[in-house]
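Usage

Read records sequentially. Each one opens with the input sequence:
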Amino acid sequence: MKEFILSTGLALCVAAPVRAASTFDGVFTDAQAQRGFEQYLQHCSVCHSASLQGNNESPPLVGRFMPDWEGSPLSDLYDYISGTMPLDRPSSLDAGAYTDIVAYLLKANGLPSGQAELQQSNLQFIQFDIKPPPAKGVGTAMPHSR
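and closes with the structure output:
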């Protein structure tokens, strides 16, 4: 937070812009993605294939899958999966299994893992990015005055 002193002597605090968490911030662990892989094989691979490539009736979950979710919060993907999958038993898995599957899908699409597990309660604060966000401070420089 930055503080500016006004000519009246009052301090005005202005919050610096905060970038939302991104799928590039390592929002899941490798162990969680492994659990998600096991859940995926058991509940999802029948339709989407073990390789995530889909088939004639089910879409792939790698590659062209990514732009469909770009810019949305991860909660949108979680809500879609947990509300509609598996197709023959929608909403039949527990919240942890669905969260682990989301972690696996992120890992399978080349997104980096981190030190903390993905939590259902935080999904709305994580943006699904398919390209790394700009580095902090890039494009925010103020012009110099002389």
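Summary fields computed downstream for this record:
- The chain has a mean pLDDT of 86.
- Residues 30-43 form the longest helix (14 residues).
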